[in-house]
Write a structure and sequence with these properties.
The complex is a heterodimer of chains A (228) and B (180).
Chain A lengths: L2 H9 L2 E2 L7 H11 L2 H30 L9 H97 L2 H30 L8 H11 L6
Chain B lengths: L14 E7 L3 H13 L5 E7 L15 E7 L3 H11 L11 E6 L11 H10 L4 E3 L5 H18 L8 H8 L11
Parallel strand pairs in B: 1-2, 1-3, 3-4, 4-5
Main location (chain B): nucleus
Protein name (chain B): Centromere protein M
Subcellular location (chain B): Chromosome, Centromere, Kinetochore; Cytoplasm; Nucleus
Chain lengths: 228, 180
């Protein structure tokens, strides 16, 4: 009699797949139709769940390996023992929290230090970049100057070549020939005149070495006019 | 099997199962509906039973949390609960059992003294929750609480276990000195 209503009640698991389960199947369907991100979140969640469940099973295994006290203890004693064990658990929790806080503070310090170092690194990198930029500018300027000097020298060279050509050209012109001829004529005349004066003075058998004026004239006459 | 054991079966993926044991079918059904309406990342399965032992013919998944619903208006409810408690394995009481007392709002109809239930919960080291399941608002809040507890007991919340929750929920006062 009692079993029947039991069975009925137990047999209507109002589970998420049943009548009221608008929530259940939609969750499963949603997970299947979801994008890969949702699938990733689902997988990560399942992983966390499985980890936690594994931890629970492990702890139960460890607990069951401990030997249970053989003697039958009074209820009060059992309660006292339970309280002691609970206090132990609380102590363990508190020490754990304290250790976590200590580690966190160390962590925070090291992270601040890291941040400072990172800023320094970035600053020095920026500085080195600026210096490299300046170096590059100076090199460019040097190159420009070199090119300018090259062009100038080229100009000078062409000018010189032009001058040479002009000069060579000039040499072949007629006027120069005439002038040259005249020059030769004058040289000859002057040489003759020189010789005449020389011979005049020598022929007069005067001691021209004593007189400074005569000495000067004789020496001057020695100068070969050709050498101008 | 005549005794419910917590770790007889392996957990199914992303599923959490709660078993509501109580004599008032309507209340249990309403509570189950409220729980299923709750927003939950994992799949929820709610099983209802009038009393234990459950028939072994039904293929049911691993039960993560048992809630014994005691109606303070009827002594039969308390008796039924006490009898069902014998069919639960001791390892279940490490955080996977919870007592829910309903009907405390209408003091005049209460035939069970509140302290009786408190003592019962204390002797089984399990948390005791109060809720008037007939009132919609309270029922919804209680459903939310139960869903959170269920998630923790099923191992879906990393870092918190059922035992952990139990030690957190432990109230500092035992049954009052008047009863002792």
């Amino acid at each position: 009699m009692e079993k029947q209503p039991q069975k009925q009640a137990a047999d209507q698991p109002a589970d998420s797949g049943g009548e009221d389960g608008a929530v259940g199947p939609s969750q499963v369907a949603g997970a299947q139709a979801a994008s890969s991100e949702d699938r990733m979140t689902l997988l990560l969640r399942l992983r966390a769940q499985t980890k936690q469940q594994l931890l629970e099973y492990k702890s139960i295994l460890d607990a069951s390996e401990e030997k249970t006290p053989e003697q039958i203890m009074q209820e009060k004693q059992i309660e006292a023992k339970i309280e002691d064990l609970e206090n132990e658990i609380e102590q363990a929790k508190i020490t754990f929290e304290i250790k976590q806080l200590a580690i966190n503070s160390v962590l925070v310090d090291s992270m601040k230090h890291l941040l400072k170092l990172n800023k320094l690194v970035m600053k020095s990198q920026q500085e080195s970049w600026d210096l490299e930029e300046k170096l590059l500018d100076i090199r460019k300027k040097r190159l420009q100057l070199k090119q300018a000097s090259e062009s100038k020298l080229l100009e000078i060279q062409t000018e010189k070549n032009k001058q040479k050509i002009d000069l060579d050209g000039m040499e072949n012109s007629e006027r120069i020939k005439i002038i040259r001829q005249n020059l030769q004529m004058e040289i000859k005349i002057t040489t003759v005149i020189q010789h005449v004066f020389q011979n005049l003075i020598l022929g007069s058998k005067v001691n021209w070495a004593e007189d400074s004026a005569l000495k000067e004239i004789v020496l001057q006459l020695e100068k070969n006019v050709d050498m101008i | 099997m005549s005794v419910l054991r917590p770790l007889d079966k392996l957990p199914s993926l992303n599923t959490a199962t709660i078993l509501l044991v109580g004599t008032e079918d309507a209340l249990l059904q309403q509570l189950a509906d409220s729980m299923l309406k709750e927003d939950c990342a994992s799949e929820l399965k709610v099983h209802l039973a009038k009393s234990l032992p459950l028939p072994s013919s039904v293929n049911r998944p691993r039960i993560d949390l048992i809630v014994f619903v005691v109606n303070l208006h009827s002594k039969y409810s308390l008796q039924n609960t006490e009898e069902s408690l014998h069919h639960v394995d001791a390892s279940f009481f490490l955080g996977k059992v919870c007592f829910l007392a309903t009907g405390a709002g209408r003091e005049s109809h209460c035939s069970i003294h509140r302290h009786t239930v408190v003592r019962l919960a204390h002797s089984y080291q399990s948390p005791l929750l109060y809720c008037d399941l007939e009132v919609e608002g309270f029922r919804a809040t209680m459903a939310q609480r139960l869903v959170r507890m269920l998630q923790i007991c099923a191992g879906h919340v990393p870092g918190v276990s059922a035992l952990n929750l139990l030690s957190l929920l432990r109230s500092s006062e035992g049954p009052s000195l008047e009863d002792m």
